[in-house]
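Revision sheet: structure tokens.
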Amino acid sequence: MFNALLLEKSDAGFTAKVRAVDETQLPEGDVLVSVAHSTLNYKDGLAITNKSPVVRSWPMVAGIDGSGTVLESSHPHWKAGDAFVHNGWGVGETRWGCLAQKARLKGDWLVKRPAAFNSRQAMAIGTAGYTAMLCVMALERHGVLPGSGDVLVTGATGGVGSVATALLAKLGYRVTTATGKLVEADYLKALGATDVIDRAELSAAGKPLQKERWAGVVDAVGSHTLVNALAQTRYGGVVAACGLAQGFDLPATVMPFILRGVTLAGIDSVMAPLALRQQAWDRLARDLDVAKLETITHEVTLDGAIAKAHALMDGQVRGRVVVSI
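Predicted:
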């Protein structure tokens, strides 16, 4: 038996509780792992609070991320004792996840945890931080370099925004952050932001083309915020879109694309191929300041994860949440 954060839905309603689960209930897979730490991402918050139909199979163990050690493996690339990181692949949605003391996963999904990070630090990064790295890599791939001009990060006090700000600043970019929490301006500047603007400047409907401001954008918000960011992106600039905190709609025009040559780069972290995942984690090990990572991290126990998930969905959490299993 082991403890897990189990989500259940029936005619009686929805429940989220930490329960004892029998190992025989775990799904099929070629790697059995001991999870030392997990985390709470936006998608985990949606699932645990039942605010969106994220979970598609019941009952479900929550948790799209996990880090720890391999217990048993029939996969050729993994053996007992190996340190791993897991992100995405539908875990916590269609397959039992990592907010549990044990999980059975597929070896093809796991990433070798970089030696630069312990298990706690890997989950302080989690899917949010790994997604932020994918965004930065997309900007670089499309030619947005530190000398190209200012870069905008939206949803900046969230997990993606916080890590993206720290990464970009360390790499030498001049970063402007947009947030609805202007009281957190000192926090964002400590991460490396040069300027902090009110998200209200971006969150309402705007003109199809606006004053050119940004060489690149990391957007975790979507909707009108993404549209305005596109309208303000400079000629040949790049917008990396990875989230929908404001909404999944895109009430835009083609004007930024056909008149300014702007590129909208979609960032998917859930099904990204293993080689890209490993590259992102290796880059995080090189380019992320671990001291800054600590400043954005809060830790809770597995028993405290449910209350923290509700706080996350209520906008009361900044940075990253590590769950100590």
